[in-house]
Design goal:
With 374 residues, the protein is of the alpha/beta class. 26% of the residues lie in helices and 25% in strands. The longest helix has 23 residues, at 329-351. The relative contact order is 0.15.
């Protein structure tokens, strides 16, 4: 295996490239493709929307001193028979292909693509007037508190089909509602949205006018490059085995993958780096003919920001449920900020051979097969 091509330079793709550069043999070439030369801190997109400044980083700087060839091109298609990737005027052969194409807001709901904004494309939000945020998960909550704290004169309303923070402990939900009330965020739970039109959100309870609508009700994997016919789940994530392979030559990591594992692997940067590290190590085991090891991931908890001054950390129990202890207030906000910064530090650690992903492994040994080979 001499040519490894990675498509996508987000948290997963960049981690995979840096790890391969360190661990692969000198005869292995590594090519990283991305349509932009900029790495985006997706974990901070809600901060960007509130006008706190974009968090962008030049990818080439992360790759300085490595063996990775960076190609700033959008992939046009993949020929899986000839094992070639076509991107503009580039024609790249591969022996192994790593897909790290990430995720995006699902805008397939009626009217969303035409009349709503997302965390990926939000433009200039009004500092006054009304902003309606549709969704009841982490993105919606972080976005609502960030927007309201940044511009108190702005009217912010959360609209969710179900309750807010479903799956989190009662303590975390109560604290979140307390902060939302304190900031002055209006909340409409258990409100079914029917469609979005220009400046009005139609719900089963009646129309809700707005100056801007932010849609956070669901994410899906980014579309695959043309030529890749792989099994997908309802979110567009590629169904991969326990070792993160879709086929013997195609590996899928990060938000683009649904892993056949003991615990579900959530979308987000917390799982991206461990997934990339596991896939790279297995890819190198293939080269050596060594047994593969399953990617067995466990999320120890979630960190949630509620503006710049408050937040919480929800710890998970051993069964994966988010019903453990809650660390809240300024301490919770401090821990969340540390985690955000650590997503960048982890790239530096990976580049310098100091990474360690033991914290993301379950305490009990995996129940998946661990002696499979390519």
């Amino acid at each position: 295996m001499n040519h490894i091509v990675i498509i996508g330079a987000g948290y997963a793709g960049l981690t995979a490239a840096l790890r391969l550069s360190r661990k692969a043999g000198p005869s292995t070439s590594i090519t990283l493709l991305n349509p932009s030369g900029t790495f985006v801190e997706r974990i901070r997109l809600h901060e960007d929307a509130a006008g706190r400044g974009p968090r962008r980083h030049v990818i080439a700087r992360w790759l300085e001193g490595t063996r990775v060839k960076f190609v700033e091109r959008r992939v046009d298609r993949v020929d899986t028979v000839k094992r070639e990737v076509f991107a503009g005027d580039q024609r790249l052969p591969y022996d192994a292909l790593v897909l790290a194409t990430g995720s995006m807001t699902d805008t397939s709901f009626p009217g969303v693509a035409q009349h709503a904004l997302t965390v990926e494309r939000f433009g200039a939000l009004p500092k006054t007037g009304s902003v309606v945020i549709v969704g009841g998960g982490l993105t919606a909550i972080e976005l609502a508190t960030e927007l309201k704290e940044a511009s108190p004169a702005r009217e912010v309303m959360l609209v969710s089909r179900g309750g807010f923070m479903t799956g989190f402990s009662p303590a975390a939900q109560t604290y979140t509602r307390t902060v939302l009330q304190r900031l002055g965020v209006a909340c409409r739970e258990h409100t079914a949205v029917e469609r979005v039109e220009a400046h009005v959100l139609h719900t089963a309870s009646g129309p809700i006018p707005f100056d801007a609508c932010m849609w956070t009700a669901g994410f899906r994997a980014s579309p695959l490059p043309a030529g890749l016919e792989l099994p997908l789940n309802a979110q567009g994530r590629v169904k991969v085995d326990a070792f993160q392979r879709a086929t013997p030559e195609v590996w899928v990591i990060g938000d683009a993958a649904e892993v056949d594992g003991r615990y579900p692997v959530p979308m987000g940067c917390k799982a991206a780096a461990p997934a990339a590290a596991s896939a790279v190590d297995n890819l190198l085991r293939v080269q050596k003919g060594a047994p593969l090891q399953p990617f067995d991931y466990f999320a120890a908890g979630y960190c949630v920001s509620l503006g710049r001054r408050e937040g919480f950390v929800q710890l998970a129990r051993e069964d994966g449920s988010l019903q453990g202890a809650v660390i809240r207030g300024r301490v919770g906000a401090f821990v969340k900020e540390l985690i955000c910064r650590f997503t960048l530090w982890s790239l530096w650690l990976e580049k310098n051979g100091l990474s360690n992903y033991a914290a993301f492994k379950p305490r009990q040994p995996p129940s998946l097969p661990s002696k499979a080979t390519a």
